Amino acid sequence: MSQDPQRHLSKQIQQIPRSGIRDFFELVLGRDDVISLGVGEPDFASPWHIREAAIYSLERGETSYTSNLGLLSLREEIARYVAKHFDLRYDPKSEVLITVGVSEAIDLAFRALLNPGDEVIYHEPCYVSYHPSITLAYGVPVRISALPEDDFSLRAASVEAAITPKTRALMLNFPTNPTGATIARKELEAIAELAVAHDLIVLSDEIYSELRYDDTEHTSIATLPGMKERTIFLHGFSKYFAMTGFRIGYACAPPVLTEAMMKIHQYSMLCAPITSQIAATEALRHGEGPAQEMHQAYTNRRNLLLSRFREAGIPCFAPGGAFYAFPDIRATGMTSQAFAKQLLDEESVACVPGDAFGPTGEGFLRCCYAASTESLREATKRIGRFYQSHL
Ligand code: PLP
User: Fold this and answer.
1) How far is ligand 1, taken at its centre, from the CA of residue 12, in Å?
2) Residue 53 domain-assigned?
3) Of 15, 75, 103, 137, which has the maximum CB count within 10 A?
4) Domain membership flag for residue 54
């Protein structure tokens, strides 16, 4: 009698689902006719000067390991960048850890912080890795909704209602994937007060912080009173510098937390790839101009997408950041999954069903506008036609 191979797997891994985004994209694979607003990454290649820096470093034979924390020269650039753009001062020698993307930094942070059964509050709809990363670190994910009626921003009252004696950490992400939501400083201040009062650690994923529109302000929670010592500031190069494939990010935190994350990183990863670290150094030294040009392109595309949705009668709040729009398809009476699948079948446009990012995303669709203007024009024409015909 054959035995179930699942028996070899840990309880942790059996608990976590596959990413809803990946499932959906298997349907798209091998279909050349599809316009994709699906994958959350820039359609631009990394700017040439960044690629060139990587190529030259290989020509020079720079192919070794680096310090576990990462190249000191990169950590110094990061400390300068974070001071300039976020008004946060970190010691590059003891408070900055270079990671393999923000993805690894999130995993390290949860593994460094959590004991089995510790609760972590996170707001959804959200990036798909938070819930599984908490579970894999033996924590208990506690989800709170960021509601459509608040333009998917988070309310301090929702955080407060979810706090229990077991709450250990709070995961924040503004601007938010998948909604593009931002948060008002006043609300963030109230959340910071809760974190201090309940002795919580905050993980702040600020990967989209430069990609903001309509003069939307951004405050890092780490700058608020009493917060720097209890915040792990997470950032990276994938989005603003269009460097997803380099797999490079960083965590800034007080020395004890940085050291704890570094201990896991040194045994699991040893260090981030040196070529990517050199490319990231170049991005920080000379990358603002090209990054701002890409930002301008996203601004134009966002405005195009929003005006096309308006013309088609599809409700969509104006996202303050990231490169996603989150239109409301509830008037069709279809589920997000059904809408996205049929849109793909009937109009060959791929968007991600909103519920792939948490139950509060049901009735919405994530459209990534890091795509060419031409694709956006055609895609919105087809989405508008599809929406109207299913009302
Ligand atoms: N955090 C958020 C909110 C994201 O949207 C993503 C990627 O889509 C990541 C983290 C992962 O970024 P990285 O490429 O740095 O691992």
Assistant:
1) 22
2) no
3) 75
4) no
For range 320-343, the mean pLDDT: 97
Pocket of ligand 1 (CB under 6 A): 40, 101-103, 127, 173, 177, 205, 207, 236, 238, 244, 249
| Residue finishing a domain among 244, 262, 287 | 287
Q: What is the pLDDT of residue 361?
A: 98
Mean pLDDT of 263-277: 98
Q: Containing domain of residue 309, as a range?
A: 5-46+289-389
Using the mean position of ligand 1's atoms as its centre, give its distance from the Cα of residue 244 in Å: 9
Judge if 246 and 141 occupy the same domain. yes
pTM check: above 0.85:
yes
Substitution site in 207, 211, 233, 277 for ligand 1 pocket (most atoms within 8 Å of beta carbon)? 207
Q: What is the CA radius of gyration of the chain?
A: 21
CA of 179 to the centre of ligand 1 (A): 14
The 10s digit of each residue's pLDDT in 347-381 is 999 999 999 999 999 999 999 999 999 999 999 99
Residues 72 and 41 reside in one and the same domain: no
Tell the residue nearest (CA) to atom 7 of ligand 1. 40
Q: Which of ligand 1's atoms lies nearest the C-alpha of 103? A: 16
CA gap 166, 145 in Å, rounded: 19
Task: Examine the fold and report which residue of 254, 287, 320 is the final residue of a domain before the chain moves on.
Answer: 287
Kindly tell me if the per-residue pLDDT of 53 is higher than 70.
yes
CA of 207 to the centre of ligand 1 (A): 7
Is residue 34 domain-shared with residue 125, that is, in the same domain? no
Count of domains in the chain? Answer: 2
DSSP string computed for 65-118: ---TT--HHHHHHHHHHHHHHH-----TTTSEEEESHHHHHHHHHHHHHPPTT-
Give me the mean pLDDT over the 305-318 stretch.
Answer: 96
Ligand 1 centroid from CA 388, angstroms: 33
Is 278's pLDDT higher than 70?
yes
Quick check: 235 pLDDT over 70? yes
